[in-house]
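Students often ask why we bother encoding 3D structure as a string. The short answer is that it lets us treat folding as translation between two languages. Here is a chain of 232 residues written in the first language.
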Amino acid sequence: KKENFIMETTSERGLSAAVLKNIAVITMTIDHVTAFILKDYLKTQGVFNLYSSEWYTLGRIIGRIAFVLYAFMIAEGAVYTRNKGKYALRLLALAMISVVPHSYVNARRWFHPEDMNIFFLLFLGLVTIYAYDWLKDRIGSNVLSVICRILLIAASCAVARICHFEYGLMGIMLIMAFYIFREDLPKMIVAVVIVMSLGYMLNVIAGSGIIFWIKNHSSNLIPALLNTDKMQ
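And here it is in the second language, the structure alphabet:
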């Protein structure tokens, strides 16, 4: 009864899941129209430095909202779904269905393993949450449990990076930040800001090779880190 009361009062004064999903869909659509249709148009006009276009920059900035909301909804969905197995299977099915259109739009190929669509990342994030809870229930909250859960998240980040899932390790870290701190809003905000700031840097560095990237930017390491992606 207490849980139902909290959910009801929260939905009355806040945003419902449906509203958040609609915002995510709208911002994602704006981002994709900008990233593909507007990009192609700008190139036909001889504009190859895309971020010199204010409209392109604005569209991509708006698009940054979408994945944050999807990550949040995965963390919440893991708690409130009636059937965890079916929830995971739906995400996996959407991932498989999206392989061809995603590959064709991004690389004009029917299968592009170097860029796997976002649903694979969301599926992996959900499975990580389930495994995280399983470890917590089986081992408890002692030091061994904490170490195991950290290793689990690290392993999921590695899988996301190696398999070229969209948003890579940052995506897994963001989903887990929303989930782990879901009952403590101040900590959640701090965790999300850290992940969004440092996670993308790690993605860029990992993509180039950590040792190679550090050697290549040894003379200006901090400025190079800050410039990995100002948009993000």
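Translate back mentally: The chain is about 80% helix and 0% strand. Keep this in mind for the problem set.
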